[in-house]
Amino acid sequence: MRVVHYLNQFFGGLGGEDKAGAPLEVREGAVGPGLVLEQLLGSDAKVVMTLVCGDNYAVEKQEAMIALALEKIREARPDLFVAGPCFQAGRYGMAAGALCSTVQKTLGLPVVTGMSEENPGVDLYREPLYIIDSGTNAARMRDVLAKMANLAAKLVSKAEIGLPADEGYLTRGLIRDQFVEQTAAQRLVDMVLAKVKGEPFESEMVPTAFAPIPMPPALKDLSKAKVMLITDGGLVPKGNPDKIQGSAATRWGSYKIEGCDDLKAEDYEISHGGYDPQFVRQDPDRLVPLDAMRELEREGVIGKLHDEFISTSGLANPLSNTRRMGREMAERIKQLGVDAVILTST
Amino acid sequence: MQLKLAIHRITAIRFGAATSIDGTTDGTTLIVNAEALRRLLLEDPSLSRVEFEIVRPGESCRAGPVFDIIEPRAKEPDSSPDFPGILGPPQTAGMGTTHVLEGMAVTVLKETGAGDSRGAPGYVLEMSGGPAAGTKYASLHHLVVIPCTKPGLPGHAQQKAYRLAGLKAAVNLARAAANDTPVSTYRFESVGPAEGDRDGLPRVAYIGQIFSRQRKPELGEQILYGAGTDGMLPVVLHPDEWLDGALVPSYHNSLGGVETYFYQNHPVIGELYQRHHARELNFVGTVATIAAADNFDRDRNCRFAANLVRWSLKADAAVLTKFGGGVPHADLAETARLLEGMGIKTAVQVTDLARDRRLESALLFNFPEVNAIVCIGGNGTAWKAPRLDRVIAANPEMAERLRGPFELEAMSVIGVSNQQGVSRLRAIIY
User: Fold this and answer.
1) Is residue B18 part of a domain?
2) Residues above pLDDT 70, as percent of chain B
3) B430 is a domain residue
4) What range does the domain containing B306 cover?
């Protein structure tokens, strides 16, 4: 097994904070912690190359550092890339995370790193990477390397990776399926009995908390505002020209309503599998209230209704997807100079 | 209320002259007179044709799309009716003796499927390979009933014909056992809010959603004692009512993971009964409810359900299951939140909604007190379903579509991600 290892200036033996500006250096063979790593990985493992870089350089010149590192790693033809462990060192963690993530993505190599939970590199890279929980104490170097070596060996041999508690990596925030011995009913009753008795129990799912979204400032004058309608109720022109999926939609579309005062049932259809669409099918204005908006426009309550509406299907859609579509829509709306949006849902 | 189950263990099915049970030293065979059964089912003027197929556990065979799976059961005379409200008057289910043909099922197919032409066209019964290991249904002998409806019937009439065909077939087959001595009988210990002699044991209730108003009930759809759920409020049921024919699933079951078989063999009720017998808890009863379409209805329903558990069943704890897709999580969580506010401990069963496999997408609620959650997986599991020679479907086009090979997702294999508590597929955070 050929291994390339990344270290910062301190663990690479260049020096302390005074050497933090040192550019990326390539060393043959194992250095410092890499000697232990090599030993822990077993007799057929060899650290063929060690990359050493100063923490400041790695963060300030990240792009250049990664480009050069990638080139060197490619030349070394390794089976595994390891970075750190970085413990609590923030810049080291950021560099190790960025490198591992790029190597994994572009070279398709197994990668392992180690950090403490508080390391800022964890926030950025916990999802794509296996990051062994190193704790903050660098004196535990050997223990941490043992866990990294164990996990790395499994990754290289494509063995099944256990849960965070078994393998010692930081929870990635992902979900996978597993067949278990007990039925859901047994687990359910076990859990409620434990809860009644005040005994510990482990919930199989945990809620996610989201930062509150600040209220935007109020419109100064609605009668001068350009208003737009957006719906996630899946109203699309007949034939669904953008092929917006009825569930977990990855696309959205914008549709002209210029010169139109009323949406006609025969011109539209619904691509949405999550509600009873018969009332919208009868009269699409029930979902995208064009008729009412035109009235407000005529009465001068709003300045102007924008001449297209945006539509997608809001059903069973993961957040990563809706977040992206929301950003795309917001960008579009800004370009159009729209002042206000009315979102209609189902 | 005292339900007695008379168990007849079936180890094979074959077609023969008279519908009967043939016990030999090798096991017990259900002999099915296909002609007589066909005549019975064709009494329904909606049907033009009915076909039957026999499927064995482990057989390299696939059937679909599945409408429902039912365990053959028949009531003795002077007991409560079979499927009251649907096949008989709406009298209270769960009384007297029920003959059970254990180890087999009646599996009803429908004629049309959903989805595009690549994946499974709805629920698939897969009898071998990886998927079979994840579902109890693969371990049963099946009499597959393939009802073909007359052309031009509206959807709701088609579905009603499928439902009646399945229930009638199941009852008819089990009647063959009425005069046979069961291999075992099972009597449930008394449960209910007023049962004494259980001081100090936690009083536990079950709240189960039986429908989600993500859909309107179809015209004439029968779910609870033959009633649709239009205008339904939460209602207290004795556990035996669930087990003995008071309930069937909705036609709208594509997200439901609910089959008649697991109402009859309800895993949550079964588990609570078992712990009741073991004197680990005091099973005080159940509430059947529906998930609402809007917050106004949700507020009302959740309060009613919580109040029934608090004041009628006087429970200390409750377990809750949902029906359908995403929205019912809101009703489930709100009911649990209200119960926790009343000092009643809860555990809830949810389904994994994170198609991107990210934890942040998994739950649709965030109440600190609703913190005991069982999560059924399914989004991350699929199998390569091989091309099979034996494929059972209502028509040749459907059979060709099901023949494979194709990617078979866990959610499409009937029984794997079931929401009645039988699923062993768990979503795990890593």
Assistant:
1) yes
2) 97
3) no
4) 191-412
pTM of the model: 0.89
CA pair distance B313, B238, nearest whole angstrom: 11
- Total count of domains within chain B: 2
Shortest Cα distance, chain A CAs vs residue B424, angstroms: 5
* Residues B249, B327 within the same domain: yes
pLDDT per residue as tens digits for the range B33-52: 999 999 999 999 999 999 99
A interface test, pick of B340, B359, B411 with most A CB neighbours within 10 Å: B359
The HSE-up count of residue B101 (CA atoms within 13 Å, CB side) is 37
Q: Where are the domains of chain A?
A: 2-167, 222-344
Cα(A332)–Cα(A335) distance, integer angstroms: 5
Residues of chain B contacting A194 with CB distance shorter than 8 Å: 372
Among candidate residues B185, B218, B238, the one where a domain is terminated: B185
Residue in B209, B201, B335 with CA at minimum distance from that of residue B272: B201
**Interval B287-341: pLDDT, tens:** 999 999 899 999 999 999 999 999 999 999 999 999 988 889 999 999 999 999 9
* Residue spans of beta strands (DSSP E) within B238-281: none
Residues B374, B233: one domain? yes
Residue B116 has pLDDT above 80, yes or no: no
* CB crowding A295-319: b at 16 or more within 10 Å, else e: ebbeeeebbebbebbbbbbbbbbbb
Query: Which of B185, B219, B243 is a domain's end point?
Result: B185
Q: How far is A288 from chain B (nearest CA, A)?
A: 19
Q: Which of B 19-78 lie inside 8 A of A, CB atoms?
A: none
Express each pLDDT in B362-374 by its tens digit. 999 999 999 999 9
In a domain, B421, yes or no: no
Q: Does residue B265 sit within a domain?
A: yes
Q: Is A164 on the interface with B (CB under 8 A)?
A: yes
**Interface contact B372, partner A, CB < 8 A:** yes
The model's pLDDT over A197-249, given as tens digits with 9 standing for 90+, comes to: 999 999 999 988 788 889 989 999 999 999 999 999 999 999 999 999 998 89
Summary mean pLDDT of chain A: 95
* Whole-number Å distance between alpha carbons of B343 and B310: 9
Mark yes or no for CB contact A205/B377 under 8 Å.
Answer: no
CB burial of residue A326 (10 Å; 0-12, 13-18, 19+): middle
| CATH tag for A2-167 (out of 3.40.50.2300, 3.40.50.720, 1.25.40.10, 1.10.3210.10) | 3.40.50.2300
Task: Check A319 against B356: CB less than 8 A apart.
Answer: yes
Are residues B375 and A318, on separate chains, in Cβ contact within 8 Å?
no
Q: Quick: pLDDT tens for A247-268.
A: 889 999 999 999 999 999 999 9
